[in-house]
UniProtKB/TrEMBL annotation:
Pfam families: HHH (PF00633), HhH-GPD (PF00730), NUDIX_4 (PF14815). Keywords: 4Fe-4S, DNA damage, DNA repair, Glycosidase, Hydrolase, Iron, Iron-sulfur, Metal-binding. Binds 1 [4Fe-4S] cluster. Gene3D superfamilies: Helix-hairpin-Helix base-excision DNA repair enzymes (C-terminal) (1.10.1670.10), Hypothetical protein, domain 2 (1.10.340.30), Nucleoside Triphosphate Pyrophosphohydrolase (3.90.79.10). PANTHER family: ADENINE DNA GLYCOSYLASE (PTHR42944:SF1). The keyword Amino-acid biosynthesis does not apply. This is Adenine DNA glycosylase. Its cofactor is [4Fe-4S] cluster.
Amino acid sequence: MTATPRRTRRAAQPAAVLPSLPDDFAVRVIAWQQRHGRHHLPWQNTGDAYRTWLSEIMLQQTQVSAVLGYYARFIERFPTVQALAAAPADDVMAAWAGLGYYTRARNLHRCAQIVVAEHDGIFPCDPDVLATLPGIGRSTAAAIAAFSYGVRAAILDGNVKRVFARVFGIDGFPGDKRVEDTMWRIAEAVLPPAEGIQPYTQGLMDLGATVCTRGKPACLTGERPCPLQSLCEARSTDRVMELPVPRPRKTIPERAATLVIALHADAVLLQRRPQRGIWGGLWSLPLVGEMDDVLDAHPLEVGAVRRAAQAYGAVSTVEMAGALTHTFTHFRLYMHLLRAEIATPVALNDDWRWVPLAQLNSVGLPAPVKLALETLVQPSLI
């Protein structure tokens, strides 16, 4: 009988040694925020966890300047978490349209429903509980708890990672677990007492967004004061533009698809996308055939599109309309569009709807689909 060799257990790697952490890090950030930070954003100083949560979700991967208008319209339409939870998903998607990353909108709606159903409409104050809700990660949970309830908790969003990488001279891509773990340990070690947590948290965000920026940090341009400049390892070693270390470059996969712009009496046919996948749950132009990584499989020839369009009704004409390219987070999509005139539509199920071109702005359309319609259909009608 042959003995099975025992698998050796790999020893856990020791945690990275933290750099020297100045005692006055938080004091500097708070003093700067009180004098130079942002104090009049519409969600600030409200004590309203709903508004804080909404702003934090919108600000994920989106700049403040782009969020302000969406936030105002969203609050007007859904003034409370109860109103958002009760709203139809289509209304939420329509209000979100243009902000991108639509998974955020689906998680936002689901999160509101859970807060109403399981927490009596009140956002929990415990960051660990907040982090179990859809769309809320560890950093977002800490920000909500700090701003809404004054809870002493550490944040680590993209702006903060950039500040830490430069100030403490941290090499390595911040998205790597080992580097991120080191940053979390720093984030917790430099926290101020609870009474200073709100200006400190806001100050860190403001520093990364307005001073320690990716492209033109203020320490190099002299446009704004930086309270951490004398502590900054990157500044003292002329590595400001080298840190943080960028994501390792990977080839972006490419796909192609054929979509049909089916028109009848100044209305366009839209199809609801499956919940999973790109544009999940949104209304979009019908996809004909598959979304392929074989780029020359598209566009499909006119005859194939005509046969597919016959499912929508009697087809009078089909012609090439144009092409657009859209880059998602993980791949690039080449969209080939054909225009089909439908003389007599047939009845379709609830996943299909004819929408007047003049009313498209009320529908939650993915930005590239909206662009395609504005570009390739008579713009005066939209």
